[in-house]
Amino acid sequence: MDLLRAQWRWPVGMPLCRPIGQGLWEIRTDLPTQRTARVLLGLYCEHLVALHGFIKKTPATPESDLATARKRQKELER
After folding, report:
1. Counting Cβ atoms within 10 Å, is residue 6 exposed (0-12), middle (13-18) or buried (19+)?
2. Structure pTM?
3. Which of 36, 43, 59, 74 has its CA 20 to 30 A from that of 21?
4. Counting Cβ atoms within 10 Å, is residue 25 exposed (0-12), middle (13-18) or buried (19+)?
5. What is the band of 2 on the pLDDT scale with cuts at 50, 70, 90?
6. Predicted confidence (pLDDT) per residue in 22-78, tens digit
7. CA–CA separation, 35 vs 14, rounded Å?
């Protein structure tokens, strides 16, 4: 539901979405299990593309998750 809300109201801001930099945004979504998932998004041909999803366990976004999203973002640009 949060991805749909971001898609139809783009651009959105906090608390739903925040920019990470280099063309990436992080969407927060609450799960039924009382956990919060994150989805890293990018723009491609004027469309939002979900690049990577994960459960965030620390205040900072883990570098490995950012690297995965950036790698997939570069693959889209080819």
Report:
1. buried
2. 0.82
3. 36
4. buried
5. confident
6. 999 999 888 888 888 899 999 898 888 999 999 988 888 899 999 999 999 999 887
7. 18
SS (H, E, C) 3-72: HHHHHHCCCCCCCCEEEEECCEEEEEEECCCCCEEEEEEEEECCEEEEEEEEECCCCCCCHHHHHHHHHH
Which residues, in sequence order, are CB contacts of 68 under 8 Å at separation 6+?
51, 52
> Given this model, what pLDDT does residue 78 score?
77
